[in-house]
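::Amino acid chain::
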Amino acid sequence: MCIKACSTRYAAYVRRFIPRHYVLSTVAAPAKLPHNMNTLTDSIATALQLVLSGDAGLWAVVLRSLAVSATACLLACGIGLVLGGWLAAARFAGRGAVLTLLNTFLAVPSVVVGLVIYLLLSRSGPLGFLGWLFSFQAMVLAQAVLVLPLVTALTRQVVEDAERGHGEQLQSLGAGTGLRSLLLAWDERHALLTVLITAFGRAVSEVGAVMIVGGNIEGFTRVMTTAIALETSKGDLPLALGLGLVLLSVVLLLNALVALLRRWRERADGGEMALAGAGP
């Protein structure tokens, strides 16, 4: 009797407080599980087919993404390597404040960068005469601004570590700040290659800034990250998964290159130390 009374009370509670459609959906959920699993496996299989078959639409987006990120990284590295090397060797009043500001820029969200570039390039903005808004150039500019603090900060750290070991010797030979930073940067060129790869990985995986300034226009400004967001919202999971697989492969390749460069540099340094120790 007690069990029957409890069951009756539970049923009355369900009817009174829990919506009927929720109860039905909860009860029917196990029956839909095999269909969902089939949908997932079918989406993955279709995504792999799109990637391996060389789908024109997918690879056009991929190539555009790589072109935008590579151009942005070249621009950012051209400025960031010089600026970071100079900050590592220079000593001036307010240097601590400049470094604090630089480190702060590392944490700026990409959507904020996109908003600033949008305001600059809008028709009423100071750079509106260029007509770059919703174009390839706008996305390059946004990504370059986004990765510039990263390149500058990492370069400064690498060159400053070398400055502690060899800076006084170069300074005693008459090398000024600019020459000293260039010599130290060249000596650490292999480590700076990892900075370039890291910057490219940051740029190619960014979505907020290019979405704002590019507009995600099909055939013109649609890149991998914005296309994944759009196709997922549309329900086109195979294309989104295909682009996600390519993007994941690019990031994995970049991390592998960084690891190989680091291991190669460690072996090279170990060989130089062994030769120095075996000398007369």
In short: The chain has eleven helices and no strands. The first helix runs from residue 2 to 17.
